[in-house]
Amino acid sequence: DTGVSQNPRHKITKRGQNVTFRCDPISEHNRLYWYRQTLGQGPEFLTYFQNEAQLEKSRLLSDRFSAERPKGSFSTLEIQRTEQGDSAMYLCASSLARPASGPHTDTQYFGPGTRLTVL
Amino acid sequence: GQQVMQIPQYQHVQEGEDFTTYCNSSTTLSNIQWYKQRPGGHPVFLIQLVKSGEVKKQKRLTFQFGEAKKNSSLHITATQTTDVGTYFCAPRREGGSEKLVFGKGMKLTVNP
Fold first, then answer.
1. Does A40 touch chain B (CB under 8 A)?
2. C-alpha span between B70 and A90 (Å, rounded)
3. What is the pLDDT of residue B1?
């Protein structure tokens, strides 16, 4: 399968615990995005990377959230001291941005998501 | 901030009917992407519209970008049960960041 993969697919944790999710993008893609989706809503942007550089973070991303993409390939999203309000589907998307094509031209391909339940 | 409104939020149609969903933005858009999410699934890319007034077709789906690049529509003809899901528009604001700003989506159910 050459699509975006995410692990784990489901995570149940108790309030106050730390969790980490992993995203493996499509291999040649230089951009990686994280979104969060709750029931009945569209995905909400959290952050994105171009190669290993984190270029934008949403105000939704509190100091309990941190994301990394150390080698410009896979990425991890960590949530510290989880709260019940963190329960959501965490989606990763990747894209290939070509500078010569200009801004806003990349197409984002989403992974299956990690569903987090905080008890 | 950028506001995106999709209407209607819910649509229930009889199999074979046509329908249209609309996406309206408060700001001028650079481009707009449409995604479909099946129940229990993840968003799947459908199309990207870039030019003012652009119209693109995918089989029974017709996508249009408004002349002012502030709105877009998706028209489905002869709906089938396989069309069931939530359709999201995801625009990018002119001069804005690379992130997609999703609307709440339009949830389609089809009566066979």
1. yes
2. 29
3. 52
The torsion angles phi and psi of B60, rounded to 5 degrees, stand at -90, 0
pLDDT at A102 over 80: no
Give the HSE-up count for residue B110: Cα atoms under 13 Å, Cβ half-sphere.
Answer: 18
User: Which residues have C-beta within 8 Å of that of residue B18, sequence separation ≥ 6?
Assistant: B75, B76, B77, B78, B79
Closest-CA distance, B17 to chain A, in angstroms, reads: 24
CB atoms A112 and B105 under 8 Å: no
E strand intervals along chain B = 4-7, 10-14, 19-25, 29-37, 44-49, 55-58, 61-65, 71-76, 85-93, 106-111
Residues A30-53 have a mean pLDDT of: 94
Q: In DSSP terms, which residues pair with B89 in a beta bridge?
A: B34
Q: What pLDDT was estimated at residue B97?
A: 82
In this predicted structure, what is the pLDDT of residue A1?
52
